[in-house]
Protein: Voltage-gated potassium channel
Organism: Ruminococcus flavefaciens
Amino acid sequence: MSEVKKNKLRKRIFDIIQIGNKYDFPSRFFDYLIVTVIILNILTVFLSTFDQLERFSSFFTVIELSTMSVFCIEYILRIWTADYLYPKLGKFTARMRFLISFDGIVDLLTILPFFFLDGFIVFRMLRVVRIFHLFRVNAHYDSFHVITTVLTEKKNQIISSVFIIIVLMLASSLGIYSVEHEAQPETFRNAFSGIWWSVSTLLTVGYGDIYPITVIGKLMAICIAFLGVGVVAIPTGIISAGFVEQYTKNQHSDTKFCDIKEVGEIFVDRESCFMGMNVSDIREKYNIVILVVLRGELTIVPTENVKVKINDILIVKSEKIVKSKK
């Protein structure tokens, strides 16, 4: 096989195994296949823990073997085509980048327990990592994207609120230890016992295994419990406000035209009909000329074969308003 044909094959495989390209039938079929395999694999892991279903253990083994084979093949293909995922990097660097990415680590940790299941307890414990494959299912919908966007945009406020929680937790743990240690030396043996109590109190969990018995300790617990309600409400309010802002932005930033007859700006989300389409296809189908593609910090002057991706901002020229959602 010539190098050109090999590169075309690798590019085609990359397009197929990428999630969310709803205009390419093989890619959509692969997406549904992977989602089905993930659900089957996780369902098998859960069902195999029931003693009543032990007679189906051979059947579960066959399913696990089949699904893990698919995971292994997908993992190898993603490594093989990683340079298309990171086009600015060389082949080796791109593959290393994928290996240390979240998806690469989850894929690897999903596969390892299957080969070392009978060897070490730590590998058997890694079976829980398979649950993270469910993020692939959510990747087909806008909800998970909204969550990650909100957490990214509000990270400074969230970090500040978490810092406040940590400060209050440390202060209350040392305070309760100082007050209760003499009265309950076996319960509040050290500051860590105070931390456990402060966490359960601040976060309004209240397990009840550790609690103050002195008057000062009880008064302190009341104050900390009230503070906990307010402290937990801070990050909750920040995230809730972020969701409202993001959904409002998605509704109103779908199509924005500076001049209706000439230049416009289109934000591409997961529901956009432009997602996954080539620049040339968009021009032919919608009579829109894409002048510039803003992709993160990159400014791309598109060629005919450039594909539109999620979160792209398209600077377009058109004689009519075209909504980017169906």
